[in-house]
Amino acid sequence: MFTRTLLQNRKLASPQQPMRTATRLLRTFKQEDQPRLRINSVAPNFTANTTQGQLNFHEYLGSSWGVLFSHPADFTPVCTTELGAFARLKPEFDQRNVKLIGLSAEGVDKHNSWIKDIEEISSLQKFSFPIVGDVEREVAFLYDMVDEEGFKNLSGGIVATIRSVYVIDPSKKIRLIITYPASVGRNSAEVLRVIDALQKGDAKGVVTPVDWQPGQDVIIPPTVSDADATKKFGEFKTVKPYLRFTKA
C-alpha cells in the first residue's frame, strides 16, 4: 500500500521526504496542497508497493538516471503497448545507466496479471522493471499527473490521464516532463533520445539542435566565447554569432 504520515494535517511531505502510512482509501485532494513541479525541481520521494516489492523511490534510483511513467488503469489498450515498448528497450536504458519504473492507479495484484498480457502481446520473455500500485492516486497527485477533469475525480471516479513521463537525473532533479492525452501513445524512442541529449549536454557542456541524434553535431552555448570554444572544442562552424556547431 502507498504510504504517508501527513494526512491528518493535510500537508504534503517535502520533496526530500518519503510519504508514510495512509489511513483511508480516499481523501480530499486540494490544488493548494499540490507541489509545483518544474524542470530542475527535486523529484518528490515516496515509498510504495510495486510488482517487485515495497520500494523507496530515491533509494531505488540510487546514483542512476530514472524514467517514471504513469498509467490511469491496468488492462488498457494504449498503456499495454507502451509498457511493452519500454520493456523491449530496457537493455538500451540499462546501457545509459537509466532505471525504469512504471505506475498505474490500481493494485499490485492486478498489475501482476496485466504483466502476463504485456509479455504475451510484446513477445517478452520477462517483464523486468517495477510497476507502482497507486490505488489511492497519491503519487499521481504528488506529481500532478492528471488533466483538469481528472483532478476533480482523484478522490473517486474515472481518471483518463495519469499519463506522464519524468526523466530524473542522478541528483534526483527532474529534467523532462511530458504529459500525454489518453488517446495518444507515447514515443519510447523519443524518451531514449532525450536521455542521450541530456547526458551529452551534461558531459560536454553543449546543447542539441532540433531532431538531434547521437553522432550528429551539437551546438555551442552562446555563453561560451569564440576563444573559449576554440580551447574547449577545437574547430567549430559559425552559422550566426549565436549559432555555432561542433562535433559531438
UniProtKB/TrEMBL annotation:
PROSITE patterns membership: THIOREDOXIN_2 (PS51352)
Q: Matching Gene3D superfamilies, A to Z?
A: Antioxidant, Horf6, Chain A, domain2 (3.30.1020.10), Glutaredoxin (3.40.30.10)
Any one GO molecular function term:
thioredoxin peroxidase activity
Query: Which keywords belong to this entry?
Result: Antioxidant, Oxidoreductase, Peroxidase, Redox-active center
What is the protein name given in its UniProt record? LAFE_0B01574g1_1
PANTHER family (alphabetical):
ALKYL HYDROPEROXIDE REDUCTASE C (PTHR10681:SF121), THIOREDOXIN PEROXIDASE (PTHR10681)
| UniProt-annotated catalytic positions | 79 (cysteine sulfenic acid (-soh) intermediate)
Q: Name one GO biological process term.
A: response to oxidative stress
The UniProt function text for this chain reads: Thiol-specific peroxidase that catalyzes the reduction of hydrogen peroxide and organic hydroperoxides to water and alcohols, respectively.
Q: Which InterPro entries match?
A: AhpC/TSA (IPR000866), Peroxiredoxin (IPR050217), Peroxiredoxin_AhpC-typ (IPR024706), Peroxiredoxin_C (IPR019479), PRX_1cys (IPR045020), Thioredoxin-like_sf (IPR036249), Thioredoxin_domain (IPR013766)
Q: Which GO terms describe its cellular component?
A: cytosol
Q: Does the keyword Oxidoreductase apply?
A: yes
What is the scientific name of the source organism? Lachancea fermentati
Q: Where is the Thioredoxin domain?
A: 37-200
